[in-house]
Design brief:
The structure holds two protein chains of two kinds. By secondary structure, chain A is mainly alpha-helical. Helices cover 78% and strands 1% of the residues of chain A. Chain A has 15 helices and two strands. Helices cover 44% and strands 20% of the residues of chain B. In chain B, strands 7-6-8-9-10-14-15 form a seven-stranded mixed beta sheet, with helices on both faces. Chain B has two domains: 218 residues, Rossmann fold, CATH 3.40.50.2300; 129 residues, Rossmann fold. Chain B is built from 13 helices and 15 strands. Chain B is an alpha/beta fold. Classes of the chains: A mainly alpha, B alpha/beta. Chains A and B meet through helix 3 and helix 13 of A and helix 1, strand 2, helix 3, helix 4 and helix 7 of B.
Chain lengths: 348, 374
């Protein structure tokens, strides 16, 4: 747990997690962005895009729920703040300057700025919500965040500037495959680096034993609020991507059920495993659609029944989630080193 | 039944062609909320559509082809509705799409249908923005402005009231829209809105809103909510000694309304798409067939689902080769079409222009009061 230890670990991981590889990754995403829509059916394409948005949501929630151990149920609220603000910015800009629409570069720049603004607004809300409520623990925190999520939703429901109950429609479809997966890669990269830094150690120490970590001189409230605000930022970005993909927003979309969906992804993937959240987010998004033919055959929508059954079985078989607290590359490394050790260990 | 379904879907799984008339069946897609919080609306509409398809196939289908319905559930979520629409268009290659009940989900579906040039007919999305998405999007219900105007006209001319109070459900886009358009139309006819109170669906106690309404002494109260709350509101209003008429929209249309509100609902009026007691043969046939198929009487949403399907079939029947552009053109030409919910004409904005009926609630029965033409 000492800072020096974490530094060693971090330097050990620079091979996989160095910035270089992530830039290459983003390059690949934009290459695919040009090709993918023509290669695959729009239906699969849509599932892939929604899976990407879910990856951002689940990885960012994992920072709060998994690594810091604070059970937040208000992720949909932060998502709606980001979604509504960015959609409001782009729709009002498009309405006042329609000529901007003809310029693809201006469109992308406005979209990127609106996403970041949405993220910042969500961070601010996360900070305001987090400051008082993160002094609470466990169940109490869960209830408070659930309440805050609902308050945010009801505020949008009563705000006529963003359509109120009628919702905000006519949003320009700026979200592309490239935008979603660039944001997803940045999210995973940032959270990975935070978690494996000294700050991340503080978060994990809060999760493991809050009293002990206070005794060690850690400002636990500050650590929690930081994690909360950072999680909210990425949720806000995901909300913006979601809004500009669906082209319509409605307060009903962001009720607590959406928060639960994200929580399920985090728990299923493993609390404290980033790759687990990624895998679970993709798996659950695909699973819902993979079960659709069943509904067409039987005429009854059994999807949610089977979906729930899969979750129960998964939780019985692997109570700590698919990956537990380890990462996908840990598993590979373990396998590699075991394979490497056997002949080596035998000869030496 | 199950095996037969598998067989049918396996047989036609690979069938896809540009013009539906060369395929073995005409595939119609439906997106609805079969599960989720608004499942009752989705299921009613689905039953109406199924009835229409059964009857059409019994008549020999459209141009000799059987009609096949592919219905997908959206769980009441806009993003699911968008995925389902994309699936219907790109995987199942449907000719046209029926749906959705709710405007928020129709707004998520419409851009996709428009982009792929697939005609989409919404049975009951009343938000004007839905058909503004593009020229392939139609609806068979009247829109909120019209329904608001109908009740404003009824209040001013039939009830002859001058001061009206409004009690709206802020959680429902439908109720907010209706209240706004009622206010505009009623003020135009010289009336006065004395107080505008609100509640959220799911609430059970309306005493504080009703007390402040009572203080303003209105001649009538406009409550454009859904039947669950309206029943309770009527009860609590009568208990507070408010005897003036209550008015509302098609959200009142349910047998449950009287179960909840009871005698308190006497002297209340609401606008609706059709009256079950209408003696027109189209209505009576529909009510009889629906009852024999599902063992209960149809609500407004079932009638709208039925009408949406029937109008779509009529449009496909009139086309020469059945391409999407032709279906779209024929849908736009629908005029004075005798449907269950009245004579429907599709106007230049692709909205249905048709009469509304005003019903009076009396001892558990919805009595036909008057018809208001557009």
């Amino acid at each position: 747990m000492a800072p020096s230890g974490s530094n060693n670990e971090q330097s050990g991981q620079t091979g996989i997690m160095s910035l270089r590889w992530w830039i290459v990754g983003i390059g690949i995403v934009w290459l695919l962005n040009a090709w993918l829509p023509e290669l695959i059916s729009p239906y699969f394409f849509q599932i892939i895009v929604l899976a990407g948005i879910n990856v951002i949501l689940s990885v960012s929630l994992n920072l709060v729920n998994g690594f810091t151990g604070q059970f937040s149920m208000g992720h949909a609220g932060f998502m709606s703040v980001g979604g509504y603000l960015s959609a409001f910015i782009t729709t009002s800009l498009v309405a006042s300057h329609p000529e901007l629409m003809n310029d693809p570069v201006a469109g992308v720049v406005i979209f990127a700025i609106s996403l970041i603004m949405g993220g910042i607004a969500a961070t601010a809300v996360g900070y305001i919500v987090g400051l008082p409520s993160l002094r609470l623990r466990g169940d109490y925190l869960a209830i408070v965040t659930l309440g805050f999520g609902e308050i945010i939703r009801v505020i949008f429901l009563n705000t006529n500037a963003v359509g109120g109950a009628r919702g905000l429609s006519g949003i320009t479809k700026f979200t592309t495959f490239g935008a979603v997966y660039t944001a997803a890669l940045i999210t995973v990269f940032c959270i990975w680096r935070v978690v494996h830094s000294a700050h991340g150690r503080i978060l994990v120490s809060i999760r493991e034993d809050e009293i002990a970590s206070t005794a060690m001189g850690v400002n636990t409230t500050e650590g929690k609020v930081r994690a909360f605000a950072m999680g909210a930022f990425f949720a806000g970005v995901a909300g913006g991507l979601f809004a500009h993909y669906l082209t319509t927003l409605n307060p009903g979309t962001f009720d607590f059920n959406r928060s639960f969906e994200v929580i399920i992804m985090v728990v299923l993937g493993g609390m404290g495993s980033i790759s687990g959240s990624v895998v679970a987010a993709i798996m659950l998004t695909v699973l819902k659609e993979a079960l659709r033919p069943l509904q067409q055959l039987t005429g009854v929508d059994l999807r949610m029944v089977i979906y729930s059954l899969v979750l129960i079985i998964m939780m019985l078989a692997r109570p700590k989630g698919i990956f537990g607290t380890s990462e996908i590359c840990d598993l590979f490394r373990e396998k590699l080193s075991r394979r490497g050790k056997h002949p080596d260990g035998g000869s030496a | 039944m199950f095996l037969k379904n598998i067989f049918i879907s396996l047989t036609f799984a690979g069938a896809a062609s540009a013009s539906p008339l060369f395929a073995d069946t005409i595939k119609i897609g439906e997106v609805g909320s079969m599960t989720g919080s608004e499942a009752t609306f989705g299921v009613s509409t689905h039953e109406g559509i199924q009835l229409a398809i059964k009857e059409q196939n019994a008549k020999g289908g459209i141009k000799g082809k059987k009609v096949e319905l592919i219905s997908l559930d959206d769980q009441g979520k806009p993003e699911e509705a968008a995925i389902a629409t994309t699936k219907l268009i790109s995987q199942d290659k449907v000719t046209a799409i029926l749906g959705e009940v709710s405007s928020s989900r129709s707004l998520a579906m419409a851009p996709i249908a428009q982009q792929n040039k697939i005609p989409m007919v919404s049975p009951s999305s009343t938000n004007p923005k839905v058909t503004e998405v593009g020229d392939y999007i139609f609806r068979v219900c009247f829109i909120d402005p019209f329904q608001g105007a109908v009740m404003a006209k009824f209040a001013a001319e039939t009830l002859k009231v001058k001061k009206v109070a409004i009690l709206r459900d802020v959680k429902s886009d439908y109720s907010v829209g209706l209240s706004d358009y009622f206010t505009a139309a009623f003020k135009k006819s010289g009336g006065e809105i004395v107080v505008d109170q609100s509640y959220s669906s799911g609430e059970v106690d309306f005493n504080s809103q009703l007390t402040s309404i009572r203080a303003k002494k209105p001649d009538a109260i406009f409550v454009p909510g859904y039947y669950t709350e309206v029943g309770l509101i009527a009860k609590q209003a009568r208990k507070l000694g408010i005897k003036v008429p209550l008015m509302g929209g098609d959200g009142w249309d349910s047998d449950k309304l009287y179960e909840i509100g009871g005698k308190a609902l006497n002297n209340t009026f609401f606008s609706n798409h059709y009256s079950k007691d209408d003696q027109a043969p189209a209505v009576q046939n529909f009510v009889k067939n629906y009852k024999s198929a599902y063992n209960r009487s149809p609500d407004g949403l079932a009638a709208m689902g039925y009408d949406a399907a029937v109008i779509l079939f009529a449009a496909i029947e009139k086309t020469k080769t059945g391409t999407n552009a032709e279906i779209r053109a024929e849908l736009a030409k629908i005029k004075e079409f005798q449907a269950v919910t009245g004579k429907i004409t599709i106007d230049e904005k692709r909205n249905a222009s048709k009469p509304a009926v005003v019903l009076e609630v009396k001892d558990g029965k919805f009595l036909y009061k008057s018809t208001v033409n557009p």
